[in-house]
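User: What would this chain look like folded?
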Amino acid sequence: DIDDEHLPAERKSRFIDADLIPLFEKVPCHGDFYRYVQWHNLAVATTAKMDLPTYVLHYDEYATDFERTKNDLMGFLRLEIVGEVPEFVAGKTYRDDYYKREEREAALQLMRMVAQPEAWSLMERYNYV
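Assistant: Here's the prediction, encoded as structure tokens.
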């Protein structure tokens, strides 16, 4: 599989902390989790460095208060709502369908190790396990 294909190079890479390798071995699709966290790390760093306005939108806010979330987002973007807004279907999760509990726990540990503190503060609210 793709994880096995990339692990030898990851073990030798000077860019990947050796402490991450045992977690890589426990997490299916570990590269996707790594990229997910790095995206957040880089988004936080880039917007701070460039002093860009940001709007943090959490997935669960769509389910708990769709109207407010939609209106706040459109206000931030300075856009008008045009036409009918599609219905939001809450509750999608792939967590239990694709990952065993021990894999989810290892993925959470991997994400915590890779995430910078500010990025982790944006992600930690979700129940990954």
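The CA atoms of residues 35 and 62 lie 24 Å apart. If you want, I can go into more detail on any region.
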